[in-house]
Structures
1.
Amino acid sequence: MATKKRGVPTAIPEKASPRVWLYLVLLTLQYGAQPLISKRFIRREVIVTSSVLTCEVAKVICALFLIARGGGLKKLYNEWTLVGSLTASGLPAAIYALQNSLLQISYKNLDSLTFSMLNQTKLFFTALFTYIILRQKQSTQQIGALFLLIIAAVLLSIGEGSSKGSSGSNPDQILFHGIVPVLVASVLSGLASALCQWASQVKKHTSYMMTIEMSVVGSLCLLASTYKSPDGKAIRQHGFFYGWTPLTLIPVIFNAVGGILVGLVTSYAGGVRKGFVIVSALLVTALLQFIFDGKPPSFYCILALPLVITSISIYQKYPYRVKKKES
């Protein structure tokens, strides 16, 4: 009788199905369009925490609706446990919260170009932790495709980030409050992405349930921070929906739909492919800026375009294949 190989099984297919491609394309469009939609419909006076919390509530409502539509609400309620929830979603949510704090610290102490370039290392760490936790190997060609993607991301970062000059801080502050935090945040981003993939594929936690749990945990952390944060003070002074208009709901709901898609992409395509989506979305943003704002894409964006297309093509065409041993 043939024995199974030891290791953690993964549910990521060698080649993405049409449904997975649909999720990837929709998420790319959402990521790419979100900055422009937010800029047009969210006024400067809107308190950031209010829009983020409303987005999390919208994500929970959307996920619950999709679960109910599929007839799985009662089953999910009967099977849900606090321990299982904390194991699957609590740790990634806490890691993402810490990652966001580190990114805020780093951004204040680095120029945009250095910050953006170092932030792209999360693609490498996602692939690394996916291998460590899920034993999901990459072929030599796929590793090459990842490096091409990182080069493309760096080129796009140069085009977008060169407008902000150096912070002028002393070298120690740049190192310990700028470079170190963004690198640690990249490591945490890769770890959290791999953990989410592990929870959905190995622990069989549905993407919708993970979205709900992570939104709840993230919202609780954000609510706790309002006790001392400037946003909390602003909410107490002006009200939760200060600066809102009916149009503000458009980017908030659009972002919530993106959160649902992130869960689906992580579950069915994996964290590494999500990295391809993020970089591809930068090209979509550049294209939309040209169409709606008349801002032509930078030279670096034009250079990055063939690299992104080539890397996606190589990554899909040459998946890792297990070498069969002769019996």
2.
Amino acid sequence: MDLCVTIKGVSFLLQTGMGILGNTVVLLAYAQIIYTEPKLLPVDMILCHLAFANLMLLLTRCVPQTMTVFGLRDLLNDPGCKVVIYAYRIGRALSVCITCMLSVFQAVTIAPAGPRLSRLKPALPSLVLPTFAGLWLLNMAICIAAPFFSMAPRNGTVPAFTLNLGFCHVDFRDNLSYVINGVAVSTRDFAFVALMLASSGYILLLLHRHSRQVRSIRRSQGGGAETRAAKTVVTLVVLYVVFFGIDNVIWIYMLTVAKVSPVVADMRVFFSSCYASLSPYFIISSNKKVKAKIVCAAEQDQPSTDNQETSDK
């Protein structure tokens, strides 16, 4: 195994391991919160679903990619490729959609009350689950073509207009299908990114204009939690947009060539998965509920460890 392959394999392994660990910890923390609290705030429900979507993305894309880099072959047959690629496409789509949803919901939450918002704000908790269902149905419909183009790798030369993922091939057969798929996915992504940027910009504007009012609300009504949540949302949006930009620059390049180099495809996979790997650590560091559950679990585990050491002595 040469140096380049080793570096690539270690990079994917670290990214995958960190991402799966972080998102699993967030999901377990929220499972404990759901068990101990009557109901979650809309932002907490969205963050929990975001961690699930990111975990789904990592398991269906980064895990087989890492195994392929380290030389494992014939991981999936044709039906397996269709299921994995479809699940990956949905997970990736949900990641951008739910980040956008998080930004919009937080913007509505901290917006000054008006005639329309005064009716909308109390209804936010009841809108979360229907919005989740709508996003799942939307992305399942948009990604429905993925299984038809996915197949296990074939021996020989990779045909034109085929994405060689290593563990699977996505064969679009002709330039028209290749471009239509790319345009459809990019249009959806850019629409949701534009909406999340607009709502995040509105959040920043509110925080800037009403900093004194926010401090007053924090002292009298506990508004500090909303401010911290808003800053977390903006941080997640900035993180997503950075990696989204890199991902789409590479994707646009891939649309302009008939045969995509495996190195270029690997670069896109790595950068497009960075958000899924890093976002749970921002959630853990900024969300007091999640952090408290992790600290509590660590403290509960410490006495059992100490008792075990004492008994050994």
